[in-house]
Each structure stands twice: as structure tokens, then as C-alpha cells.
Amino acid sequence: MTTLLSIPEEAALCRAAFVGVPVGAMTWHCHHEQIAEPLTEPADERIAYILSGKPIEEQALRLHLFRPTRDAAITATEATYDATVKPAWATYDAAITATEATYDATIDAAHRAECPDCPWNGRTIFP
């Protein structure tokens, strides 16, 4: 197991590692369930959240492991992945949106016909 420093020391090292690293850069362990992912906000905001919103017993390890990647191949692979996957997700999202509209309209019409006295307001049967 890694020997951890104090939380303030790990926070200082983490901040130093991200000097000049832009949003969108690839990182290690930004979140505990994902090994690598791009920054979606400045690293300082994530560090502040770790210090304010995560259990104290997790903070040093999270700060110790949260780092920018240094391997250019990871950045290149991420770019290829995005170029391939983002258009596919856009197609998927458009199909879901169109299908959900039809589905919702069908359900609403059938519900009105079959439950004419129903108090359903879109969220609950209780007014």
C-alpha cells in the first residue's frame, strides 16, 4: 500500500501536479470508479470538492492518486475514442428522444381513455 502524507501535504502535491493542466486533459483517478477520464472542470475545483465533500479517511488517498496523465498515447486514444463514439451517441440520443416522444404520447392517450377519472398529474396520483 502507498504511504500517504498528511491531507494538506497531499493536497499541495496534487495542486502542484495540475499547474498548467487544462480542462479536457486526461487524468488518473478523478473519480474512484474510473481509472482515467478527462477533466470536466478545473482540477482545483475537484481538489476542493475532495477536501469538502469526501470522507476524511478517503481524502489523502484520493488526492495522492488524482493526477494528470503523462502518456501521450492516452490523449491520442481518447481523441480517437471521442471522434468515434460521440457521433454514435448523438445518433442514439436522437433515436431515444424520438422514440420517447411517441411512447409518451401513446401512454398518455391510452391512460386518458382507460382511466378518465384519474388524478394523475404527471408525477403522482395524489394532488
What's the order of the H and E elements? HEEHHEH
Helix tally?
Answer: 4
When the domains are counted, the total is 2
Structural class: mainly alpha
Low-confidence stretches: none
So what's the overall shape?
elongated
How far is it from the N-terminal to the C-terminal residue, by CA?
56 Å
- The beta-strand count equals 3
Taking Cα atoms only, what radius of gyration do you get, to the nearest Å? 23 Å
Strand order of the largest sheet: 2-1-3
What value does the average pLDDT take?
A: 92
Report helical residue fraction.
55-70%
The major beta sheet can be summarized as: 3 strands, antiparallel
Assembly state here? single chain
Attribute tags:
mainly alpha, 2 domains, 127 residues, elongated
Molecular structure report:
- The chain is mostly helical and 127 residues long.
- It has two domains: 7-70, no CATH class; 71-127.
- The chain has four helices and three strands, in the order αββααβα.
- It has helices at residues 7-17, 43-53, 56-65, 72-114; strands at 26-31, 34-38, 67-68.
- Strands 2-1-3 form a three-stranded antiparallel sheet.
- A hairpin with a 2-residue loop joins strand 1 and strand 2 (34-38).
- Helix 1 runs antiparallel to helix 2 and helix 1 (7-17) runs parallel beside helix 3 (56-65).
- The termini are far apart.
